[in-house]
Amino acid sequence: MGRDRSELGHGLRSVAHRGYIIYFRYADNRFQIVNILEGHRDAEKHFGIDVESEDEG
Fold this sequence. Notes:
Blueprint: E1 3-4, E2 13-17, E3 20-27, E4 30-38, H1 43-46, H2 51-56
Antiparallel strand pairs: 1-2, 2-3, 3-4
């Protein structure tokens, strides 16, 4: 279930719901919600990913 978002964090997945993106992972046979962001938010910035420096390296 959900889209693979491992570029944002280990085992992270996401699904859209009513203008929000729900970030979650499965851990130890449990469903763990990591965060919920409004769909227009910059997920990379929120999760601490610096896209510009990754493109340079």
